[in-house]
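RECORD TYPE: protein structure
NAME: S-formylglutathione hydrolase FrmB
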Amino acid sequence: MKKLILFLLLLPTIGFSQAKVDTIEVFSTAMNKSLKAAVTLPTGYESSKESYPVLYLLHGGSGAFSDWHQKVTEPGLVNRLADQYDLIIVTPGVGPASYYFNSPLMDSVRYETYMTKELIPFIDSNYKTLAQKESRAITGLSMGGHGSIYLSAKHPELFVAAGSMSGVMNIDTRMWKVPEGFSTLRTSQQKEMLGEINYDAPNFNPFTAVSYTNQMKENGIALIIDCGVDDFLIATNRQMHQLLLENETPHDYTERPGAHTWEYWTEALPFHLLYIDKYLKRN
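PREDICTED:
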């Protein structure tokens, strides 16, 4: 039986937000290990008889479940947004450079299964959620942007809207204009997790988000994608945008000043909530 383990996560607050943050551990049967997540509950949650929509907010490649609380340049941003939109925000933690997929070679990398079959049911069982796709959305930064678009494309029954901030829309590191050491590290990790796979269009491998543009059109999930013009991942985002234009998939795409930084993501998240909130049902 899965157990709910609560910890106190000491986080900065802003203004008069009274949002509460639980830090939980969820055991993954698929990977035989426990993973932490932060669950932000809006003011009034404990006394309310209502159920709430949920946003899953994903971290980047070398990040952690607490990043969105501790690294944003506006302290208490997640708490404020949970109150402003009256919803639950879940920030799960996953392994480094794991991209939220299931590795065909490593039993320790089953993050697609964890997210869709273990974490979401766990949250719905232990919190007052509206446990339906119409009330559930997902977004994230960098690797988390990949995870959001990838998971929503493969599991349209789970999400009504999905977003990406500075996302790795294509895991092909040849498209990343970053220092050689960083790129080499990621290439080595990908080969360990995935083996020899195809990175070239039009037959992209099934582990990268750009391979699911046809499914995105069929799914009809609301999509918001943005990236800074100085971001080393801008090429992958432009590629995704172009593919979605070519197959006429409705989506919101924005390029703004900025790079791969927390300043950029701090500014981007409120825009994502403003967009996503239009699609979340509250009954």
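COMMENT: The two ends are 30 Å apart (CA to CA).
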